[in-house]
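Troubleshooting log. The previous structure file for this entry was overwritten by mistake, so regenerating from the original sequence record. Sequence copied from the archived sheet and checked twice against the printout by T.R.
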Amino acid sequence: MGTEGSSDRDYGSNSTFDAEQLAKQKAIDDWLPITSSRNAKWWYSAFHNVTAMVGAGVLSLPYAMSELGWGPGVVVLVLSWIITLYTLWQMVEMHEMVPGRRFDRYHELGQYAFGEKLGLYIVVPQQLIVEVGVCIVYMVTGGRSLKKFHDTVCSTCKHIKLTYFIMIFASVHFVLSHLPNFNAISGVSLAAAVMSLSYSTIAWGASVDKGVQPDVQYGYAAKTTAGTVFNFFSALGDVAFAYAGHNVVLEIQATIPSTPEKPSKGPMWRGVIVAYIVVALCYFPVALVGYWMFGNSVKDNILISLEKPAWLIAMANMFVVVHVIGSYQIYAMPVFDMMETVLVKKLNFRPSRTLRFIVRNLYVALTMFIGICFPFFGGLLGFFGGFAFAPTTYFLPCIMWLSIYKPRKFGLSWWANWICIILGVMLMIVSPIGGLRQIILQAKTYQFFS
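Regenerated output below.
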């Protein structure tokens, strides 16, 4: 997609035409969701990042731990935390490495690193898989948590199908999707970030309160070697999914104001550090305490393992719903941006409220429909996790870094990047395998629209 600079090159001498073109471009950029408002504070970036990172994935961490075992589990958690923090730092640095230009979107950076065409083909499909995938998974998660809330609060009520709960959850998004840009959803995002911390705390707090179960076992639950290995792979995918905030990081940074003497990476980096501390406070206690208390009998959503006290679990589920509402918006925003960019710049639609209304409602309806059709939650996470999260989070930033900065061979930076790339590629290969097997096992017993 054309950058602001391209219009100068194409038309050469005709300066009034130039000015018109630039004005038109600027008008479009002021209308598009990501570039429209650049007055965010550093703490906006903190809670946008928390909302983007701490997914409902945190609730499946104890289960992932039970499939990884104590040693590998802790290593994988900590390593993922370090590697993703490093790649996030790279993204923040690369946002403004070319003086006078800002890479407001992941694919713009990709185009700069890999060339105009190739950059689009490498980054956009992955980014779309990630963002649309997250939105679909969150539709299901939101619906499930609402259902769990309903079943917990009123156990004697009439049984309502998951399908309807997903529709109820989607109804919120038909309204919220029309908030124009990231700053407009900062309130939703703040609520979501607070919620994520709250339900993580409930999850591990209630586990501690429950105490170590009498018949707890820490071995692998699978009976066969093959089962154990596949589960191990799938758990890696779950962990990869848990650390996937990178797809929206440049888009978040794009909302922070920037001048040559005070670039946006300062406040953004502060926000990221705060976000990462919060992420650690959410992830490590839940994963370790959850596994420690329940051993390998833990469910793939820790809140299901904690039956009592009913009011607390109901509350936690409601928190999950609020958080997932915020996350859905954060991941949908770049998709809205892409769709609107294509419509306005390539297909020359007029930027209007109507266009936005139609596009966004269609998107929400689509994710809702797919979510209703395929609600096998855990396996899909592992499958998508490995397929698209590993690259965008673990090694694409490193490859871009190597191709742009060209660090000294066998220097520290060179080694660090190559190690991340190798680990990331391995993760990308093994975790979809585990996820696919889980999907196949679950699909055997699944009826459509049940």
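The mean pLDDT is 81. Archived copy saved in two places this time.
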